[in-house]
Structures are given as C-alpha cells and as structure tokens.
C-alpha cells in the first residue's frame, strides 16, 4: 500500500480500537517502527491523533466521535475519581446542569441524596440515573436525541436553556486546549453547551487527561470561562499549571 493508504489504515485502527501501539502496528502491517512513528507524527500534526509514548490515540473531530457505549469502558477508574472530586465543588448550588457523556453521568450518580437539588440535563443516561432519587428534581431538555451519546440537541434544548439561571454547570468537551478552549465535533452539541455556559453562574470542566491539547471542530468556551478543571494525574503538573495561569483552579486526582 502507498503512504496515504497506510496512514488511513493506521487512523482507522486507532479509531476502532481506541489506541495503537507502534510495535504491534509495525508487525501487523509488515513495516518498520520508524515508518509507523513518522505516520503517527504526521497524523498528530494534522490533528487526527495524539501521540503518546509508544503509540497514539484518536482525536474526536467533525468526522469521528466515540460513542457513549465506548466511553463507559474506557478509563473508568480515572473518570470515577474525577466525578467524585467534581462533586466536592458543589458548594451551596441548588440548580445544577449535567452535560452529556460518561464522566458527567458518573457525576450525576455521585450527587448527594440528603439535600434538595434540581438537575437540568441533556443526557438521557444522567436523567435515568437520578429519576428514582426523591430529593432530586430532574428536568430533561427536549430536542433531537443523538444516537452516539443519547443526548438532546437543537433549538428545543437551547430554547429551554435560554430561560434558565443555573447555579453550577458540569460541562464536558471532546477537546480542551490553551489556544482554542473547549471544543466538540458537532455544531448542534456546541450550541447547547454554549447556551449552558451563558446560563450558568459557575462552570466546572471535568475530563480525562487525554482530552488536553486536543482540538475538535466547534469551539464553545474559553479556558477563562470556567471556574475549575477536574482531571486525572495523567495531565502533567507543569501543563496543569499552564491552564491554572489562564484562570481556573486545576484539580488532578
């Protein structure tokens, strides 16, 4: 195969499996490790993958997004720690927004049950997690349901949000970078997230370390717009400090 086809095969494998290893990829394709490294470096430069020591993982983009079912099997321990730490930031909030995605779903599950809360969410999964809790009132945003994430989008959702004032929003993103802020692949999702940012007094971003430095298609917030970032210790302390200098508290768990 030529170089372009080879890189396409490597990218497809990265997206299908969730990551690739240089050595295994070289053996599978019958090429040298150095060739795989060059291909991955080029894919990284084009914003399609992020390089790691010995391999790469895919960056979500307008043409590729992981499904909720995949996210529930990836980095679960890290996401559980992040969710627990994010809930510690609840403070005296009475109205809370829970974003789509698996980490926000874990935040929903970790919310306290001993105080009245109103939770607004676009996530069918998060709503389902909370509907049996007597102390929590759940408001599910209307709209078109995206099959990949089981979340609602479009003008029904943004119209509902436009009439609300929310104490605290737990927001996610497909990518977060110091240059481009918080990004997501789908314009319809970006519209909902932007409206959430506008409607909320406080905003907390929660996400695993491999979202950092990644950039997707649609930007909906700047780093300075959020109060706190909660992530895992896979994000180096030096990089966490660079985000801290832009405004938010950075918590690594």
From TrEMBL:
Q: Which InterPro entries has this protein been placed in?
A: Carb_Metab_HTH_regulators, DeoR-like_C, DeoR_HTH, NagB/RpiA_transferase-like, WH-like_DNA-bd_sf, WH_DNA-bd_sf
HTH deoR-type domain ranges (all copies): 3-58
A molecular-function term among this protein's GO annotations: DNA binding
Query: Which keywords does this chain's UniProt record carry?
Result: DNA-binding, Repressor, Transcription, Transcription regulation
PROSITE patterns noted in UniProt: HTH_DEOR_2
Query: Which SMART domains does the UniProt entry name for this protein?
Result: DeoRC, HTH_DEOR
Q: Which domain of life is it from?
A: Bacteria
Pfam families found in the cross-reference section: DeoRC (PF00455), HTH_DeoR (PF08220)
Question: Keyword Transcription: yes or no?
Answer: yes
Role, per record: Repressor of the lactose catabolism operon. Galactose-6-phosphate is the inducer.
Put simply, this protein is called Lactose phosphotransferase system repressor
Please give the organism.
Answer: Streptomyces phaeochromogenes
Q: What lineage is on file?
A: Bacteria, Bacillati, Actinomycetota, Actinomycetes, Kitasatosporales
């Amino acid at each position: 195969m030529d170089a372009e086809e080879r890189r396409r095969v490597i990218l497809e494998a990265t997206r299908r499996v969730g990551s690739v290893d240089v050595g295994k990829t070289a053996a599978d394709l019958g090429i040298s490790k150095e060739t795989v490294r060059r291909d991955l470096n080029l894919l990284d430069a084009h914003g399609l993958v992020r390089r790691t020591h010995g391999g790469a993982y895919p960056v979500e983009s307008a043409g590729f997004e992981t499904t909720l079912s995949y996210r529930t099997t990836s980095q679960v321990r890290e996401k559980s720690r992040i969710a627990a730490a994010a809930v510690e930031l609840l403070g005296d909030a009475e109205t809370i927004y829970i974003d789509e995605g698996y980490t926000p779903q874990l935040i929903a599950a970790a919310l306290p049950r001993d105080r009245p809360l109103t939770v607004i969410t676009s996530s069918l999964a998060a709503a389902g997690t909370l509907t049996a809790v007597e102390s929590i009132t759940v408001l599910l945003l209307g709209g078109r349901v995206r099959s990949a994430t089981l979340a609602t989008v479009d003008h029904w959702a943004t119209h509902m949000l436009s009439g609300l004032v929310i104490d605290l929003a737990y927001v996610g993103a497909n990518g977060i970078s110091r240059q481009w802020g918080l990004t997501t692949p789908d314009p319809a999702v970006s519209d909902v997230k932007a409206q959430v940012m506008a409607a909320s007094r406080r905003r907390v971003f929660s996400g695993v370390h491999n979202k950092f430095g990644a950039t997707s298609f649609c930007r909906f917030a700047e780093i300075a717009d959020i109060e706190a970032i909660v992530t895992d210790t896979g994000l180096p302390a030096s990089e966490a400090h660079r985000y801290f200098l832009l405004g938010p508290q950075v918590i690594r768990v």
